[in-house]
Amino acid sequence: MTATVTRTSPGDATECSQILAQATADRRTVRIQGSGTKSYLGDVGTTDIELGTERVAGVIDHVPADLTVTVGAGTRMADLKVALERAGQFLPLDPPHADEATVGGVIAANSNGFWRARYGGVRDLLIGTRTALADGTVARAGGRVVKNVAGYDLDKLLVGSLGTLGVIVEATLKVLPLPETSDGLVARFERPDEAFAVAHAIVRAAARVEACVIDRTDESFWRVAVQARGSGPTVMRAISDARREVAARHGDAAELADVLDRMRELPARATDGALVKVSLPVAASAAFAENAARLESFAALAVDAASGVARVHLTNEDDAVIRDAEALLLAARMVGGSGRIERRAERLRSRLLTWPNRPNGDFLMRRIKEAFDPAGILEPGRSAFA
Amino acid sequence: MHGLVALLGPAKVLGTHDDLLLYEYDGAVDTATPDAVVLPESTADVSALARFCHEHAVPIVPRGAGTGLSGGAIPVEGGVVVSFARMARILEIDVPNLRAVVQPGVINLHLSTAVAPHGLYFVPDPSSQKACTLGGNVAENSGGPHTLAYGVTTNHVTGIEIVLSDGTVVRLGGKAAEDEGYDLVGTFVGSEGTLGLVTEITVKLTPLPEDKRTLMAAFPTMDEASETVSAIIAAGIVPSAIEMMDQLAAQAVEAAVHAGYPLDAGGILLVEVDGPRDGLDEARARIEAICRQHAASEVRVATSALERERLWAGRKGAFAAMGRLSPDYYVQDGVIPRTRLPDILRLVKDAGARHRLRVANVFHAGDGNLHPLILFDSRLGPDELERAKAAGLEILTACVEAGGSITGEHGVGMEKNCYMPLQFQSSDLAAMRRVKDALDPPGLMNPGKIFPTPSRCREFAFASTTR
Q1: A282–B405: do the CB atoms touch at under 8 Å?
Q2: Tens of pLDDT along A24-53?
Q3: How far is B378 from chain A (nearest CA, A)?
Q4: Quick check: pTM over 0.95?
Q5: Are residues A131 and A20 in the same domain?
Q6: B191 touches chain A (CB under 8 A)
Q7: Could you read off the pLDDT of A195-232 as tens digits, one per residue?
Q8: Whole-angstrom distance, CA of residue A358 vs CA of residue A385
Q9: Which of B151, B283, B339 has its CB closest to that of A63?
Q10: Gap between the Cα atoms of A47 and A31, Å rounded
Q11: Are residues A276 and A243 in the same domain?
Q12: Same structural domain for residues A17 and A162?
């Protein structure tokens, strides 16, 4: 195989759409790249063209009083953070790979962190897009206002589409004023049921926390990390309520330090073995985590207590990793959840598909894919559902 | 008609002239008579009906309570209206998972009432919540006053069961926060019944806030009220609701509801903050100070649940109170970036004056979601409605030019489908059309809605000003 990959980086939506129109005409496949932090997602092989978004970057419009910002899709989250901080605001989204990830990549991968229950996820914060389509047209969806029901919500289709429907060129997102103050804690528990009981009490308390995550590494205890941000009195109340819950179950609380950041970056560290991501009904997450921790290949897990999204890292001999990963996906389905193999060692790619099972409604997803990219040039093989 | 009766039995099919007349209108101004009305009692009924209609190429138009404000439930191209009045059960209240599973005919407020004993509620609260159905809310992606901090319907739906136009039943999403693949749930919410029929809905339930503070502030003019909205947001406060009302609306509301609004104020704001008790009084004091800085002549804080309900009763009863001012009204639903409120509100007033019509304003100021109520009297001739629509179009054009939208929560329906090219270029609409054709290939689901139709939209040739 001597495939030559053409690298291209369009400077605007029109250029981008022309590249796609030509690729469609030539039947050449296209891979889209932001900064490449999540290139492990999906089942993609080699493609003819690599389309980088680095030249469609930067803040296009930011009206602080409207609490919205419009950016080029290639804008790095870290750069956007700095720009917004100058106006005393922030994008309430804390995806992994935060140093490098681009806004477009975060949208295409539906990459959420731990703040979802408090502020909403990518799908809740995205209010407008401009997307270059495979036929060379550019489609705008949504707008720059926070409420908008004119026509279909194509923004939703793009969130998590992994580039299979088009190249997101521009995005408008909701932003918020920076919170006044912040506080947090991390507590340790012997038993998972205690950790989950505390975490679930904390996320339902009157003073809402920003993040509440349960994790377990190969050490012999379960941790609950809690962070609250907001006005002084609400943060104080949230953390004192959390301390009371921890004490009631005999956990010992310590300084949060960078614990949440470490938990969030589990996908970045999981370069070996397999990383399984599941989304569960929250009440099912405690039993799921307890069983996961008993698996032979278990290495680490982190569960967002409020949303029921869990990641389990498995390391072992290949056969054991594959068996345990598939068992976890099955367990998620059994309780009404779903999941994917989010990351796996390169050598496991052919043996461990991202989606061993197809999602509900996959035939409708394929029809949509067909309608937007009939020649199948965009991210071929990236997703089983498309 | 006979085929439908044979398929579903006579008890589920209405076809007499008198029966059909009851289904020819909704909360908006357009009407059309259906060929038949079907009242399914199960997903199986809906699926059988869809198969039948598919076979005979008959359009299907879903209908909840008929409170919609864009003609969404009107069978503009004929066919069968499907009323979900008999699929109105709450199937499950799942407290540990903070979810409820409901049939589409469940009334919005009934769900919140049913889960209140568990300390929970369903956040979206359209003003019609005593009557409107959750199926209708899903179709229109409905909002309400309290969506400013907590989001609209799409932010609170995690699963749906749908019946496609060929009768296929598909379950999408569930009780978990997300599902794999394209977000089809998010695509169906707000699709106005044009992609399929929703037969079951899984919604998020939210813990009731520990406490609330509700303020009513009166201002000399709408400008000062508008500037106050921006100032509150700029101060870093995100209230759960900021509603605005002009003098004409306040006078109508006072006559009907006696909410205690001052009659001499040019603009009135209703602001609510909720959350943990700690910090609420501080937030209230900051909002009060901002109101005073912007020349508020009066700031009243509700001191009891009863007083709060009274203040809200005025807001929620505002549309109904318009009957005191005028026999008919035409309500628009444009959205603008909230910083543009003062100039667009002046433009709304001018548009009314130009068409010799009075306009009352009652709206979700925090979201920038306008609701100009254009008052007219159809007894004076067809020209009245025409002038109201012309004024409405001028207002929507201004909203789009300000970077906004022609509809924030009422939907496009058959009322604004001809206006879609104001906001979207042909390539944008073509992308939406691909979704429509992929999910409803025969085009039988609620035809004549959302997309401009050549027959009805001939007179509207807009040069798109956006982008």
Answers
A1: no
A2: 999 999 999 999 999 999 988 789 999 999
A3: 28
A4: yes
A5: yes
A6: yes
A7: 999 999 999 999 999 999 999 987 789 999 999 999 99
A8: 6
A9: B339
A10: 6
A11: no
A12: yes
* Band of pLDDT at residue B2, cut at 50, 70 and 90: confident
Q: Read off the CATH number of the domain in which A272 is found.
A: 3.30.70.100
**Closest CB from A124, A139, A338 relative to B428:** A139
Residue A46, pLDDT score: 84
**Statement to judge: residues A158 and A70 lie in one domain:** yes
Rounded to an integer, what distance in angstroms lies between the CA atom of residue B198 and that of residue B203? Answer: 13
pLDDT bin (cut points 50, 70, 90) of residue A1 is very low
Question: Which of A139, A176, A367 has the CB atom closest to B438's CB atom?
Answer: A367
Same domain, A286 and A344: yes
Q: Does the CB of A364 have a partner CB in chain B at under 8 Å? A: yes
B430 touches chain A (CB under 8 A): yes
Please tell me which residue of chain B has the smallest CA distance to A357: B180
- The verdict on A35 and A127 lying in the same domain is yes
What domains does chain B contain, in order, with CATH numbers?
2-83 (3.30.43.10), 90-207 (3.30.465.10), 211-321 (3.30.70.2190), 326-411 (3.30.70.2740)
Strand B80-83 with B157-163, pairing: unpaired
CB of B439 closer than 8 Å to CB of B164: yes
Based on the fold, state whether residues A106 and A205 are members of the same structural domain. no
Q: Tell me which chain A residues have a C-beta less than 8 angstroms from the C-beta of B175.
A: 281, 336
Distance, in angstroms, between A4 CA and closest chain B CA? Answer: 30
Locate the chain B residue with the closest alpha carbon to A130. Answer: B428
Is A339 part of the contact surface with chain B (CB cutoff 8 Å)?
yes
In CATH, what number is assigned to the domain containing residue A225? 3.30.70.3450
Judgement on whether residues A183 and A130 belong to the same structural domain of the protein:
no
Distance from CA of A211 to the nearest CA of B (A): 15
List pLDDT tens digits, range B166-222. Answer: 999 999 999 999 999 999 999 999 999 999 999 999 999 999 999 999 999 999 999
CB pairs under 8 A between A and B: 257
Segments forming the whole domain that contains residue A333: 265-354
CA distance B119 to chain A (A): 11
Give the count of domains, chain A. 3
Question: Per the CB < 8 Å rule, is B408 touching A88?
Answer: no
Rounded to an integer, what distance in angstroms lies between the CA atom of residue A277 and that of residue A265?
13
How close, in Å, is residue A253 to chain B by CA atoms? 23
